[in-house]
Design brief:
single chain, alpha+beta, 2 domains, four-stranded antiparallel sheet, two-stranded parallel sheet, 8 strands, globular
């Protein structure tokens, strides 16, 4: 069995303290049996996080940082005919404007219904299509856009940006390219379109987060999968992104007592 456990560690002092105090006997025994085959030495500021790089390597994909075509893969799984077009994943989001910077809230916190998402999608569709995009609805939190400009457009993974300053992740020479400028303009215009929309009026009345922007990620043409995908265990993702260290530790214990114990016994 080939397992991938995203968000197994973090560089923060809080995460390090949790790991120092956490007893994971089954993981320790498994690691003692294993031999390191390859090390990923990319830093914490790469656009593609470690688990996405591992998934891409397992699939045999070849692409630069921030250009792993997960959008096309996800769109195909959602039943969309992707062909040879370059696709990007559009995630409806809420951007929180603070005193010093703008933070992207976890899209899961929006709890968008299918009806709300479809209404917002319909409201902004013409905006994207007027710029030559093909726009497709996949799920409440997954919209897809196809455009030639997305072929080599580096984008930070959504998992890099949740809870963080969005400006930091729209930086460098790639952010000054014409395709990136178009994306930022679309983000601004989408905000203007959705601000007075009835779905946001209703959400404000019940104190829910409003839908006021989107994040683009996973851009590129579809690539053939040349290897077997590992089993992904994502129980650590939500608590780590929320910096809920008690829940993160509990999720680690559950993995150690469950699937890791089963692997050890196999």
């Amino acid at each position: 069995m080939h397992l991938l456990i995203p968000f197994a560690s973090a560089l923060s002092d809080a995460a390090s303290q949790v790991l120092r105090d956490l007893a994971l006997p089954n993981l320790s025994k498994l690691l003692a049996r294993l031999t390191l085959a390859q090390r990923d030495d990319a830093d914490a500021y790469s656009l593609s996080p470690p688990h996405e790089r591992a998934l891409a390597a397992a699939a045999g994909w070849r692409a630069a940082d921030g250009c792993l075509p997960f959008a096309a893969q996800s769109a195909a799984r959602d039943g969309i005919e992707v062909g040879e077009l370059a696709w990007g994943l559009i995630t409806p989001t809420h951007w929180h404007v603070g005193r010093d910077h703008v933070t992207l809230a976890d899209p899961a916190a929006l709890e968008l219904t299918a009806a709300e998402s479809q209404a917002a999608f319909d409201a902004v569709r013409e905006l994207f299509e007027s710029e030559g995009f093909v726009l497709r609805w996949g799920a409440p939190s997954r919209w897809y856009a196809a455009h030639e400009s997305l072929v080599d457009l580096p984008c930070a993974s959504l998992d890099r940006v949740i809870g963080r300053n969005v400006e930091f992740w729209m930086r460098g020479s790639a952010a000054r390219s014409e395709p990136a400028k178009l994306v930022r303009r679309l983000q601004s215009e989408l905000q203007l379109l959705l601000y007075p929309h009835p779905i946001n009026d209703e959400r404000e009345q019940r104190a829910a987060l409003t839908l006021n922007s989107f994040w683009l990620s996973g851009c590129g043409r579809p690539q053939r999968n040349e290897g077997a995908a590992p089993t992904v265990l994502d129980a650590l993702r939500a608590p780590l992104l929320a910096e809920d260290w008690a829940a993160w530790a509990e999720a680690w214990r559950a993995l150690d007592d469950g699937v890791l114990a089963e692997m050890l016994a196999a």
